[in-house]
Amino acid sequence: MSNKVKLFNKFGIMIVVKCMKHIMNYQRDALINEFLDLSLKKFNANQVFDWLYLKHEYNINNWSNISKEVREIIKNNYDLSFIEIKKKQTDHLTSKYLFRLNDDNLIEAVLMNHDYGLSVCISSQVGCNMGCHFCESGRLKKVRNLETFEMVEQILLIEQDINKRIDSVVIMGIGEPFDNYDNVMNFIRIINDPKGIAIGARHITVSTCGLIPKIERFMEEDMQVNLAISLHAPNNEIRSSIMEVNKVYSIDKLIDTIRKYIARTNRRVTLEYVMLYNINDSLECANMLADLIQGMNVYVNLIPYNETSHLEFKKSPNINAFYDQLKKRKINVTVRREFGGKIDAACGQLRSKEVD
Ligand code: SAH
C-alpha cells in the first residue's frame, strides 16, 4: 500500500512523499486485504498472484485478464521492480548468480543440481554482522537486511533463467536469516503458498549461527520448515575462537535451546560442522561432539571447508576419520557434497571479489 511519509526539506517545508511497498512483499491474504481497501476485488489479488508466481509474467502490461483501470491502480500503489542478474558462473552441477539490487548493492545465490532435484541457496542480508572468522560474508559487514521481495526475486529470476521450477530452498547464502527474522518468515510463507511458487515447507531450510531468542521464536511458528544450526565446534573454547556469536550465546545454552526446539516441534535438527584443519577436526573433537549431542534427534552435516581469503583456515584432510568416529559413536552423520569450489560458491566469495 502506498504509505505517505511526511518529511521536511532544507527550507523547513513539509513535503509528503509516497513510498510504495513492493508487491512481492505480500502474502496472499495481506494483498487481498489491501486490495479491498483500494476498492479492488479479492479475485484481483488472486490474479496478481497467478501472473507473478504461476504464469511468471512480470510485465504488468501483459496481465491481460486484469482491466486497464485496475492495472493503473496497482501501478500507482505498488513497486513492481526487479533486481537483476549481474553475473552468472557455471560448472557442471552448480551455477552461481550475482545479483544487483535496486540500490546497487550486490548479493549472491547458488543453484545446485542434486540427484533429488534443483535447490537454491539464497542470501538474506547484504553482508553479515555475525563475524564468523572463517566466513567470507562477514568480511563485508552488514549493509542492510534484504526485503522480502529481494529474496522472492532471487528464486523467480533463477527459475526464469533456467526455465525450470526449483524444488528446494536453503537460506544459507550471505547473511544471518534470524537477524532479518520478519522478512525471512514472510518470504518463507510466500514461497510456501500452495497456489503460488509452492515450495513445500519440508523443502525449505533455514540456517542460523545460533541466535537463541530467535530459535525460541521460530519453534512457536506453525511451520514444518527445517532448521539447521551452524555448530562448528564441540565446546566453548573452540567455538568462541572461531564464532563471535558464541561469546553471547554459549554452546551449552544453544544445545539446551535445540533440545527445547526438538521437544516442542518433534522435528529433527541439522547440525552443520565445517571441517577446519587443526582447529576442530581431531578425533578428540569428534568424541566431544558425540558426548555433547548423544541421544538428541539431530544429524551432523560435515562441511568441507571452501578455502577463502582467510588464509589461516585450511580445509581439513581428516573428514573421513572424523565421520567414522561419529558413526562408531552412533551419531547420524553425512558429509556435504562439494559444490562450486571452482566458481567461488562459498558464501560471499563472489560478492567479496566484486566489492573489494
Ligand atoms: N548465517 C547463517 C547462514 C549463512 S552461512 C549461518 O551461520 O548458519 C551457511 C553455512 O556455511 C554456515 O554453516 C557457515 O558457517 C558455512 N560457511 C561459511 N563459510 C564457509 C566456507 N568458506 N566453507 C564452508 N562453509 C562455510
What's the short story on this structure?
The chain has 11 helices and 16 strands. Helices cover 33% and strands 22% of the residues.
What do you see in this structure?
This protein has helices at residues 28-37, 42-54, 68-77, 148-162, 181-192, 212-218, 236-242, 251-265, 283-293, 319-328, 349-355, and strands spanning 3-8, 14-19, 21-22, 78-79, 84-90, 94-100, 106-114, 117-121, 125-126, 144-145, 168-171, 204-208, 226-230, 269-275, 298-304, 333-335. With 356 residues, it is an alpha/beta fold. The protein folds into two domains: 4-78, DNA polymerase, domain 1; 84-355, Aldolase class I (TIM Barrel, Alpha-Beta Barrel). The strands form four sheets. It has a ten-stranded mixed β-sheet. Strands 1-2 form a two-stranded antiparallel sheet. Strands 3-4 form a two-stranded parallel sheet. S-adenosyl-L-homocysteine binds next to strand 12 and strand 14.
Key features of this structure:
single chain, 356 residues, alpha/beta, DNA polymerase, domain 1, TIM Barrel, 2 domains, ten-stranded mixed β-sheet, two-stranded antiparallel sheet, 11 helices, 16 strands, 33% helix, binds S-adenosyl-L-homocysteine
